[in-house]
Amino acid sequence: MIAVITPLAIGIYTGYTEIGVALCFGAFWCNPSDVNGSLKHKVYGILFSAALVMVVSFIGGYVHYSPWLSLVILGVTSFAISLISSYGFRASLISFSGLLALILSFAHTPDKLRIYEYSLLVGLGGLWYLAVSLLWYKINPKGQTEEILYETIARTGKLMKKRGKLIDELSNRKKLLKSLFLMQSELTEQHETLREILILSRKNSGRSVYNGKRVLVLVQLIEMLETAGANPVNYTKMDRQFQMYPEFTKLFQNLIFEMARQLQTIAEIGNKPNKIPKHETLNSHFKEIRIKLQDLSEVKEAKAYEAYIMFQNFLEYQEKQFDKLKRIKWLLSDHDVASEEFIDKEILKRFLISQDYSPRILLRNLSFRSTIFRHSLRMAVTLMIGFVLGNLFAFQNPYWILLTIILIMRPNYGLTKTRSKDRTIGTIIGGVIATVIVYLVQDVYVYATLALISFVIALSMLQKNYKASAIYVTLSIVFIYGILQPDVMAVIQYRIIDTLLGAGLSYLGFLFLWPSWSFQEIRKDVTKSVEANKVYLAKIADFYIHKGSVPTSYRLARKSAFLETSNLSSAFQRMTQEPHSKQKNLNKIYELVELNHNFLSSLASLSIYIQHHTTTEASERFNGIVHKIDENLSFVLKSLADVGQNDEKLNLDEVISFEEQLPKFESENVNLGDTDNVRLKRNHQEEQLIWEQLRWLYSLSSTMLKLTSSM
């Protein structure tokens, strides 16, 4: 805000208002591209924004000479600017800056400055914003990292709490799972952002140790996400054991909830090591469960022993979570960390997803198959319609219609619809509040103060609460006009009408102008998720066979599996927000999403166990089952691609026959007189977990194949 307001204030004070306004606009339009990420990407993003708004302001300077020329410039330029979104999230914000500059060039015509002078000053305003942003970074270099790190810790705590609720929420499980999928998706995105900031941060003597410790914290958080999804057996068997021994339900829930609470406490206290929660409460929870497990192990019954083995495996997962939590606490305290503990930067860079900025990305998107191309064309045509209507019916400020369109219209239906509704409601509420204030107060100084406060709040709320942001934007605009002209009530009236028209055009534009529906793309998301899980399964099997240390390729496969499953959840979420007529195969798609999550959960269970336990040699049977699961996944991919669908029919009898032959842990066949042998218990734990997970994976892959074959 300092970068935006300062040039305007100095310009007004010194009598160079137009120069102040140009610099203010340049800084304001570069603000959207200043999002979380590495310093290098921030600098490039702001520089590109500054160059774009400068060029757009120069082009927009000529829109006032002819309505027809204005219409052509608006259509062509808005289409070209919108296409920039092809290069990812930050590029989409730069594109938004360019559209803002284009639309506001309709509203502001410099009187004293030439067009090229005004454009250069707008670019200079962008450089001024970059300078202020870099200065703030120098003053508070750790601010961004700390904010995202503690937010990630808090989200991990919330996810663990939700996971704990799943233990006994049988009737509400479907709703909880949907919520959990969404949380996992958001958390995976947080991991990506934090990973980029930490790995690409400039390495110097002042920050290398700090960054190294934060990277290690991130590693623990990523592994906590993996462990949170792990189950020793499938949900049905877990439910049965918890129902037979309900006392363990409360014991495990209390343990998980306490770990979740401690994570959220760490997030709340921030950089205050002396306030980090102690281990005592968690130690007492673990002790209580171990005592109960010891009692259960002494019951010489087959069912009790099977339950004991499952609960023991589940407890060991929670112990791994506790180890990671203790590690996070230690790293965030003032302890020294040996340099050899830090992860090599070259290895870390392999975990980054680098954005391709080559021209071929743009060329690839010049097709109706591209969602961004259709969005860009839709944006351009809708803006042109809004411009024609605004001029045809002589609206007081037709550019408000265009501004509403660029603020609301998004590439997907759900967000466009939500923003249309929020923008309309926010504008009406803001208009009502402004009307009351204008009736009660007639003081330009009060208006100026309220306009500034409203504008600051509007910007701060833009990403968090769009409806609230719309309220404050309306208030700030009304108060600014209250200073400039006497008939404020007319301003409020036109503001509401323009917003309603802009919101209506945005919504109708998406429905009728080359719409992009999720059902057209979601098969690709399912395919990517299945492919990633297939690779992860292969890496787990390879590690189980050959043992040794965990290779980087294994961790990369895990990252990819979680990321693609997260992307699938997001795609499905978008699909549920679309009209019912466009939700084709919704129930089957949801089943596939759930099956993919369960498949990844089972892989995570295997992964954690084999990494942290000394396991026996892999048998030929193990290799055969893994091969069969991999084969099923290959058939799933063929079905999704519509390749070989007629050649590879699913033989249900063969599936059932193979599943019945799969080895499983049979507590009835265990000699209960030998169960006091610690080594034997450990072998039984491995036997139950490994074979149960393989049976579950085979069952899940077979169900996926049935579903995809029928779609």
UniProtKB/TrEMBL annotation:
The keyword Membrane applies. Residues 47-312 form the Integral membrane protein YccS N-terminal domain. It is a multi-pass membrane protein. One of its GO terms (cellular component) is plasma membrane. It is found in: Cell membrane. It comes from the Bacteria. Keywords: Cell membrane, Membrane, Transmembrane, Transmembrane helix. Residues 386-506 form the Integral membrane bound transporter domain. The chain crosses the membrane at residues 12-31, 43-62, 68-84, 91-109, 115-137, 376-393, 423-439, 445-462, 469-486, 492-514. InterPro entries: Memb_transporter_dom, YccS_N. PANTHER family: MULTIDRUG RESISTANCE PROTEIN MDTO (PTHR30509:SF9), P-HYDROXYBENZOIC ACID EFFLUX PUMP SUBUNIT-RELATED (PTHR30509). Belongs to the YccS/YhfK family. This is Uncharacterized membrane protein YccC. The lineage of its organism: Bacteria, Pseudomonadati, Bacteroidota, Flavobacteriia, Flavobacteriales.
